Amino acid sequence: MLTDHERSHLEEHIARYPEKRAGAIYTLQFLQQKYGYLPDEALAEASGLCGLSVTQLDELATFYTLLLRRPAGRTVLRICDSIACHLAGAPALLAEAQRLTGAPLGGVSEDGSVTVMPHVCLGLCDQAPAALAGERELGKLDQAALGKLLASLKTVEEG
Amino acid sequence: MGTFYVDDRAIPFSEGDNVIEAARAAGIDIPHFCYHPALGSVGACRLCMVELQPAREGDRPRSMAACMLKAQDGMRVSLSADKAVAARQSVIELVMTNHPHDCPVCDEAGECHLQNMTVEVGPGYRRYQGSKRTFLNQDLGPLVWHNMDRCITCYRCVRFYQDYALGTDLGTLGSRNRVYFGRASDGALESPFAGNLVEVCPTGVFTDKVFRRHYGRVWDLQTAPSVCPHCSVGCNTLPGARNGTLRRVTQRSNHRVNEWFICDRGRYGHRYSESPERPLKAGIDGREGELADIMGATADRLADAQGVIAGLGSVREDMEGNAALRSLMAAMGGWYSAHASPDLEAAISEAAAASEQSPTLNEIAAADALLVVGDLTGHAPMMDLAVRQAVRAGHPLILLHSVPVPLAAHATQTLTLSPVEVSSALSTLRKRAESPDARANASLKAVAELLTQAQRPVVLGVAETLGAAGCRSLAQLAKASGARCAFALPGANAFGTALLSRPGDSERVLRSVESGEVDTLIVLGSDPFGSDPGAARWRAVRPKLKFLVVLDCIATETVREADAFIPLAALTERAGTFVNYGGLAQGFGKAFAREPALPDPYTTISDLGHMVGLSRIVRNAEVLAYKYLDRPPVPGRTGIKVESSAYTHLRASAEADYKPGAAPTGHWQAALMTWYGDDPLAAFAPELSSLAPALAAFIAPGQGTDTDPPAGTPVRLRGPLGEIDLPLAYDRACAKDTLGLNRAAIAALGVTEGEGVEWEPLP
Amino acid sequence: MEPVLSRNFHLSQPPGLADYRAGGGYEALKVALGQDPEAMIEMVDKTGLRGYGGAGFPLARKWRARGSDAPHPRYLVMNVDETEPGSFKDRQLLYRDPHQVIEAVLVTGFIEQADHAYVFIRGEYAEGARRLEQAVAEAREAGLVGRNILGSGFDLDLDVHLSAGRYICGEETALLNALEGRRGNPRSKPPMPFEKGLWGAPTLVHNIETLCHVPHIVSRGPDWFNGQGVNGGHGTKLYSVCGEVKRPGFWELPMGTTARELIYEHAGGPPNGQALAAFLPGGASTAFLLPEHLDTPMHFDAVAATGSRFGTCGIIALGSGTCPLDFLIGIHKFFVRESCGFCTPCRDGLPYLHSLLERVEAGQGRPGDLDLMLELCAKIAPNSFCPFAPGAITPLESGLKVFADVIQAHIERGACPYRGAH
Q: What is the DSSP secondary-structure string of B503-534?
């Protein structure tokens, strides 16, 4: 449940736009930050704030890559597999990530620490292979660095 | 205005036309999927590619989507150019990469636009050898079946559901070739117009879930042009039957009524005719028998009833049947009315009398300001859909209502008022429209101004809840504002029955039974001893009737009370005439016959008349039925408007029957709460009825001095003529002092809209 | 060459307001506020400045198309949705010098007499958005953003709008839909955004790099700007090279610097003894250029003359040791994933091509596959709704032609000639 403070923050942000629905993406990102992903309850809360139905919010949540409608690990690790990173070994990196986490791409590792997904170009082409761990940008992520990263993510706390 | 060329053929166009529209009007059907005349152009499918010849020397021709290309004078496009042909074939090839080979087992086959386009455009073979993307389907409720693998992603469904019908629970999910049209979660579609998905979808993604249970290929269906019997709009339909049973009803286009769509009540309400509860056997005094025998026995008893007989017709029965009953009564020295409730009779007369300039659905959609009073969605769903079009175009909608109504979500301004306050508001608005200095509060002033300043204002009301006084007020308000007005009337032929009524008919019939003067009653298609308006007074006089004859096609309470019962053909099993809210008489045709065949009321009543020795009623009935039409309407044609002389008759009836609004009689005022699937016939359609809202007595929260009793508390309601127990429910959209009650409760209590009801929690 | 856009890039943290001003920041704004917008449009016109987001539309022409009598409210949108593979220059501007970004918005906003500005930033650049918001707060407090800017009487407020992903949102009409809180499908044109954009109002959308030049042009003049270029180019450019080179990176250099200089001098050329097989000059959605094109000056006209496109000028290099088919699949799968799903040729055509490419790569190719792919390319690009599919088809079609023999070798051998049998 959103606190009153959180609710007023969102209302204030939404009010900056001429139409409420323009604040929907911000609202969904905020709720995702809070819950780790967007459960049905989050859409219901967003619905009252943005003036969109739950289905209309789901239209947005299922279109935009960064919004997640299924539970994710505490860190979402997005490994770029566009051309520069592809050439630098992204496919092998993604395979190795699945092996190390024991979960398929998009799934949650058994210890709940991480979800690994391929992602489109992150604008870090000069540091390929690149990745985003949550909002942290990582470059030159070779197999060794990946192993260290996944190990460090195990200790990251919720929230 | 101008001329452009398609493969050197000159095509005229009007300013703003797209090439596809103008070509279509000239008889050239450019292949398309996503374009739809009611939904407009979006340019998604790319099937309508034409080659645009360059305007300038030396430029190259360009491939353009005909649905997005505005026609210009002198423009030259080619359908037959190689690149255009190849482009269209490429689209077919691409949508068919994922399309399952379902035709032999798919409901849509035979009326599938994808099939038609694939055969017309080609190719007819698949060279793609990759995998097909597949989806899990959703349960969208009892009316619409979902199969997403067949989707060609034309977006028509969501453009209809969200953009056209303003629904919010069906949307476009996902992206790329995994776009998915569905809801956030399984569940019954909420829109009263969801069934139109079945029609707008060009493939078999959305199909008629009711039809599929007892399916027939479209080419095997027996059809006849018909008119919907479920409300006073009179949408044109096409019923489809097979092997003696009705399988489905779809829409049929008529620009004077419904151009493209029908509501779910019209599409799924027909199931009453296949209901296991449907009374198919004639009977008298508790024994069933052959129709001819029962008719004979009935006629014998009727022969003794000269002078002590009355007939009650119905707003949901055709002109011919009602006219035959009136003629029979006249010949037998008896009284006739089509209305069990004198209040309702007065309201219908008043409403019909004011409807000479009433707008069609298309004209409502083109309004630039709208005032709606009451639950339009529950009484005439397609009028609601027309109102939504005006709202989409950005025009203001003012809504006056007493109970929760779906249009409140789309109104620019909502006035939630008790029935008594609604009366008063209408009166104030009328005075204000007639005289700009008349006193009114700020919001009513604004409403009055909005209507007078608009170019094409429209005022819509619900006759049943306005009552005669409210209808008169609304009509006067419309006239003074320069607005056209229309009323949702309580039955497919309510306007028609008003043509057949004489002033005071309903009261006279009731009194004649109450006084004992009449002991024999013939009821055609009405339910005076059940839930029809006025039932409370009628229930009280049942013991005074020695012989009750009932003709109907559904198992009402009145049918159960009958001494003699004659089963009728359902509306799709016979031909007849309905007159809609706007005085448009339309003929409906007989789509099929049941085995054994059942009679229509006109024939039955005429036969009874014969058997009683009265043969001239047939001729009289015909004269009566078509009195105000210059000829009987033919099924499948656009319909015939009643002549002006009808309005003279209606105005006289209205004047004579007029009842001023009742003074408030109690703290809590009764208000009818209905929903889009609610009519006596559709109540027997199980799939549609399963969506009916829960039965309860609704009030707004927070009106008591103490805390509100919890929702669900059983309460006893007491009206002037009866009592009923219901659970209590809360809704903020109820007006203060207002009790939202369904039709059965209103009938049990014997109240009209706004009359006082007492209630208290049961111990 | 004196750094212009990148003058603060060497700092380990982006400069705050005080440091930015100390280096001459917001002087251009002062100059602009005292000038006639028409005069500044004329200045930019003289430079021929074109959009650096990929489309390359001349900025002055865009301004004049909207005109000075457009109704209000008028919106200015800065597009920082950079998702084109190979393009990472916009990130640098956002992350390393947010006040330069703000100044660009303000000066452009004044020229356009805009009422409100949005900076639309892709969701993956969240850290950059935070830096910008911090800088905006500083600027607002200093009276540089909001009402009566520097006492000029001109009002302009600025909102940072973070998106939630999707490459298509970089297309200006899809961006407008995304900003409005809708799915990011493109809109049909006409109407143009400068007629009906955000919420039906006149809107101009510009790439971040394009706008960052405007304050410099205004304060130092078009002649200075034009003089910064070489080989017929005007101004400076943030160039980048990535892919199979020793030192992928970005550099601000004179517009018109040759591909050879970029790939070999700055990026060190292909690694591990490889030769350069080919390169995409302008990001993933451009056609291949070959070693014979290395001396092409990298500016719009010269690149167009080769038959390819300048685009975002993010060069992607392919080394001679890498299978070109693998490279093509690496490019193509991006487009398959990022299709918005609106129109048939893109939504269903790109995956069809993908299935054929994968089949050939896996050694299951058939003799007609190359022709089939070229046939599909020819039907997809001209018939789609927006420029996304043409952008997807361009590198593929070009690659299928340039590397036709490699494709055929896959098919004939049933194996990748670069890797041997599977």
A: TTHHHHHHHHHHTTS--EEEEES--TTTTSTT
Report CA-CA distances (Å) from A129 to A86, B338, C271.
8, 82, 16
Is residue C254 within 8 Å of C262, Cβ to Cβ? no
Please judge whether C344 and B47 are an interchain contact, meaning their C-beta atoms are less than 8 angstroms apart: yes
- Domain of C160, CATH number, reads 3.40.50.11540
The range of the structural domain enclosing residue C353 comes to: 324-413
- Report the residue from A23, A84, A122 with minimal CB separation from C243: A84
**What residues of chain B lie within 8 A of the CB of C379, using their CB?**
86-87, 90
Q: What count of CB pairs under 8 Å joins A to C?
A: 132
Closest Cα in chain A, distance from residue C283 (Å)? 10
**Over the stretch C335-368, which tens digit does the pLDDT of each residue have?**
999 999 999 999 999 999 999 999 999 999 999 9
Q: Which amino acid is at B624?
A: L
Residue B704 is predicted with a pLDDT of 74
- Residue pLDDT, tens place only, A62-116: 999 999 999 999 999 999 999 999 999 999 999 999 999 999 999 999 999 999 9
**What are the residues whose beta carbons fall under 8 Å from the beta carbon of B258, sequence distance 6 or more?**
B233, B235, B236, B251, B361, B382
Give the pair of three-digit tokens for residue B511.
Answer: 């009194």
CATH at residue C243 = 3.10.20.600
Number of B to C CB contacts under 8 A, please give it: 88
Give the residue numbers in B contacting A (CB under 8 Å), as ranges.
Answer: 162, 168-175, 180, 183-185
For B151, the 3-state DSSP assignment is coil
As a whole number of angstroms, the distance between CA B476 and CA B351 comes to: 11
Q: DSSP assignment of B197-230, as one string? A: HHHH-SSSSEEETTGGGG---GGG-EE--EE--S
Same domain assignment for residues B442 and B456: yes
d(CA C279, CA C277): 7
Q: Dihedral (C-alpha) C130, C134, C140, C145: value to the nearest 10 degrees?
A: -40
Instruction: Give the torsion sign (CA, A81, A83, A84, A87).
Output: positive
Single pTM value for the model = 0.97
**From-to residues of CATH 3.40.30.10 in chain A:** 75-153
Q: Is A53 on the interface with B (CB under 8 A)?
A: yes
Nearest to B49 among C188, C355, C383 (CB): C383
Give C-chain residues touching B203 at CB under 8 angstroms.
none
Say yes or no: B126 contacts chain C, CB-CB below 8 A.
no
Residue B705 has pLDDT above 90, yes or no: no
Q: Are C344 and B127 in contact (CB < 8 Å)?
A: no
B62/C382 CB distance under 8 A: yes
CB contact under 8 A, B174 and A56: no
Measured distance CA(A68)–CA(C164) in Å, rounded:
10
B-chain residues within 8 Å CB-CB of A58?
171, 173, 184
- Please state the rounded mean pLDDT for residues B211-217: 96
**Chain A residue with minimum CA distance to B168:** A53
Report the CATH architecture of A4-61.
Orthogonal Bundle (1.10)
Instruction: Give me the long-range contacts of B272-276 (CB less than 8 A, separation at least 24).
Output: B272/B553, B272/B554, B272/B570, B272/B681, B272/B682, B272/B683, B272/B684, B272/B685, B273/B246, B273/B553, B273/B570, B273/B571, B273/B572, B273/B573, B274/B214, B274/B245, B274/B246, B275/B554, B275/B555, B275/B684, B275/B685, B275/B686
The pLDDT tens digits for B687-702 are: 999 999 999 999 999 9
> Is B538 among the domain residues?
yes
CATH numeric code, A75-153: 3.40.30.10
| Pick from B129, B130, B175: CB nearest C340 | B175
Residue C422 has pLDDT above 70, yes or no: no
Nearest-5° Cα angle at B293, B291 to B295? 65
